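Possible race condition, two jobs.
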Amino acid sequence: MSELADFGLIGLAVMGENLALNVESRGFRIAVNNRTVEKVDQLIAGRAAGKNFIGCQNLEELVQSVATPRKIMMLVKAGPAVDKLIDQLIPLMSPGDVIIDGGNTHFADTERRTRHVEEQGLLYVGTGVSGGEEGALKGPSMMPGGSPDAWPLVKPIFQAIAARVGPEGDISCCEWVGPRGAGHYVKMVHNGIEYGDMQLICEAYHMLRDGIGLSNDELYETFSEWNAGELQSYLIEISRDIFSVADQDGDGFLVDKILDRAGAKGTGKWMSQLALDLGVPSTLVTTAVYARSLSAVKDARVRASKELSGPAVEPPTLNAEERSQWVEAIRQALYASKICSYAQGFVQLQAAAKEHDWPLNYGDCALLWRGGCIIRAQFLDHIKEAFEEQPDLENLLLHPFFKQVVQDAQVSWRKVVVLATELGIPVPAFSTALAYYDAYRSERLPANLLQAQRDYFGAHTFERVDREGTFHADWLGLRRNPDDA
């Protein structure tokens, strides 16, 4: 066995430590380092005891411990710390070595760093890693981009440690995404879709609990049934489990004792901001980000709840059959809204690929998310199939499979939004998804009036439906004078 390591890893927080153990478990020798060297000693004496690890006290020792061409991965906090670490590694490494960033990095930083590292004669990979600490240990979803020449060097290790799917477990949830920042952009869209998925599930829960009165035990059974069908996914599965957990410090269920104030790490916000830059309507992630922001002002909401009234309507009294019908309606609303959310995500990927000259394979992107990651779901198989059948598919809603699903769900979807409105239950993501669907299917929207307004007050000009060209009207001169009425 070679004394040198096959792979180096810097950063031994939870994700880094688990990923290091994953790499070693696949038959690779790994060298590790951490800014606080006590973490290295603890790992080597603890979970890595007797395993094929090399504990390194500093960066020089780490680099010297890895066989060339070296493959050294950073799992440290995104931002200036990454730039500092890159600058420390570059003079220690040799031409053709690979520096890898596995953090939640903004794609623009990866674009910049790839060029910088390549200018120094090295190769660079920016890879999204999704799946949390369990995924890091057992098999995450990985979305690598960067220097194309780096892919053959990291591919054997990346595909060995990534999650695997398929009937025989022969498909790795790791494939080369594209140059420079493409991998981190795809990871960002994954996280944005995750925001949308979680908000949609929370709204379904809100309607099931407060709209039709399901208990936690009934919610558990409902989510169990959903997880056995079209909505099968990791998030539905863990939501089911949550409804079964009793509060160990009191009576009742733990979920009911948790404060309704949500946090966010920022990647959903990035997707929303970049969608605005591209001019694409990624409304679901934006709504989900704002829903978290509104949840965060808990004290203000408590004060407002004592001042502001809603509709004087009680939830309907339902028999068993009616409750079952509403549960199915909410399921269909959730499924149709989910399709809109993913459709928006892939539209944004298409726009970004065009903007940045990335040759993205959208079917492969869907497959990368099929296992290991937070949004892993059976539903993604249909997305891969859709893009395999139509690589230039403009929008998932136009594919026959998804078009039929939404058509079948449409009546129930609208009924759920109406009931929520009548009861005063906020369902911003359900409503936003439905508004997106209705706007996207509309041949004519009221933007003609908007353009007239812009031309009136700012001479921004407009186009016409009956002739080519750009026009401006003398609105003040042509208008009917109110004084003449």
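Job #2 (started ~2 s after job #1):
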Amino acid sequence: MSLSVGIVGLPNVGKSTLFNALTRSKQADAQNYPFCTIDPNVGVVEVPDFRLQKLAEVSKSQKIIPTVIEFVDIAGLVKGASEGEGLGNKFLSHIREVDAIVQVVRAFSDSNVIHVGGKVNPQEDVDVINLELVLADLQIVSKKLDNVKRAAKGIAAKDFAKQLELFARVDAQLQAGKPARELEYNEDEILWMKELQLLTMKPMLYVVNTDEQQTSDFRLQTLGEHENSIMISAKLEAELADLSPAEAKQYLQELGMTETGLDKLITASYKLLNLITFLTSGEPETRAWTVRQGAKAPEAAGVIHTDFIKGFVKADVVNWQDFVQFGGWSKIKETGKLRLEGKEYIVQDGDVCYFHIQ
């Protein structure tokens, strides 16, 4: 399952610095001027999961394979992008291709890094970005609404009544400056909405890029209403990325931090996409696999190999903690902790699975 998260924001808010730290690379050219990132940079990032090492030790696995997320560093957006300002349409088209959005908001102070608005104002930055996404969507929805209205005048008017009501509701939401994702939709409406690929339907995580000393105690009141927000110092993360794992761990301890901001970001992005991890473990390898929350056992098997969906018979399932505690597959059967699950079983995060395929 290939999933991507787009990193967006105004120019000079720290997107490329964050991306470079994420990918432990210098792919994105972090320079002090707008539109430095023109074509999106793509990096595949491992999802941190302490469970893998524990399972591998029990199974004496030869290798460990974590699950991954694709991060895309997208060019800085400016006011008027929906009308073609800056990189305008090119920027917006890149966002349409990702599954979720991480919006980087500048809260750090640095007189050497120009702010495109002339001053550091996090809430203003958020408002600019969100308005541009709303305005871009409004153009699409208004056009769709006009087309449905024309179609509804014909012989099959009744067939379009539900669509007419839906797109009128979404149009009103966008006219009010609010994202489309905040409305509720039934199953049919979700399918119609997917066709439009609206930017404001994508889940969003706010990353508040703070000064280094503000990472642990700074709270941004203006973003308090946004449940999906985390605090990170991109500059600090870039410094940590240049250290060896041992040095980075020691530096974190000195700062009184238990995990890097990047780990928080990766984990939060994973949750934002409504994903869970199931695990497989044996001597050849211990591996993490990604499925959407609510996936049934055959779908999970299909992530390993598409042929497994049709051939699915049953699955041996055990919680990862029980797997570790009782010594793996060879001993778990004696404990009563092993479950035999069929096609209707909904896979849970942390399940260790062995699929029986015919």
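Confidence is low (pLDDT under 50) at residues 25-39, 215-220.
Logs attached separately.
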